[in-house]
């Protein structure tokens, strides 16, 4: 699939030009600069979305949809046809062209034809179908690309100047859902396991199965758990984790089943990747059995497993199930040699948020850590513990970096809120005293943009 040569960057605004160039960081920076300032509604975002889609920068297009672009406001002749998108093999592009504001453009008969096209590519195999269509036996250039803004990726293949992506299985699933066709559990598992765990097909199949709160889907998870192939067990662990994650309440039937299965599974799993996923499934469940299962792997050799342990130990907000061992575990993992383990432990220390002086001192010791990410997490957690050391540390960190505003602001705003409340208390205690709380927030940034 080729780009269609629509308006060049010279005739476009900065946001659309950055989107057409596929410059994700610049797009984020421009979106951040626009926050809180009057502008033309979603018009600029929509124009940028059209430019991103025309240039096949599907991850940028996905971001712009999340930031206010309205695909339905783009004229059909300024977008690729849905047939082109299906043939190209990009699930994100198909999603963009079939979203709520644009779905009405496609009659059922067309969707059925495109489902058949997706099935043809999927069943033949992307490379084989690409060779058939180009008539070439030459070398295929292959790479992995970010298809949407999220975690999952797809493969991209180029042969004789023709480029396609290998997301046809995920597209087939999406079109079946649009048509009201129930894809069998076996087909969903097969489509997932044809790809790597970070592929879009894997994630979409797991999510769709986990939303089926029914015995057939649960039986799939149990069967995969007992499989000798660690790859199949990994998909089963992800499915079981999502059964717990998407539960409406801890008392829901499939949540109870999932927690029991994950707890038992954690004691017997030997593959580190599978074990990490199993333990992540326990991270949102507050209970002594889950805590014991996590603590059993506190010193595991694999950092991914330790990250899962660190993430899970702080989920009990009221401290009811946070034992002395769990507290010691969090303290240990805050100083783990793996940075991501330490960050997860910092977050857990903040989630506990009971003013524990030992936890606070350990967090404060990380305020001079060489990595900015660690310092940011320590600031947020100290603020949650109502420790005033977060204020000066936030000042030293300065404003969020361009392109990283959302994630960094999430940490810094906790210190800003703490300082505001401290200033409010001071004014209440000493009437007439003026708080200098605004000084902690960088110039041009609202001091507490998310305070509720």
TrEMBL record:
SUPFAM superfamilies: Ankyrin repeat, ARM repeat. InterPro entries: Ankyrin_rpt-contain_sf, ARM-like, ARM-type_fold. Residues 426-452 are annotated as: Disordered. It holds the Pfam family HEAT_2. This is HEAT repeat domain-containing protein. The lineage of its organism: Bacteria, Bacillati, Actinomycetota, Actinomycetes, Kitasatosporales.
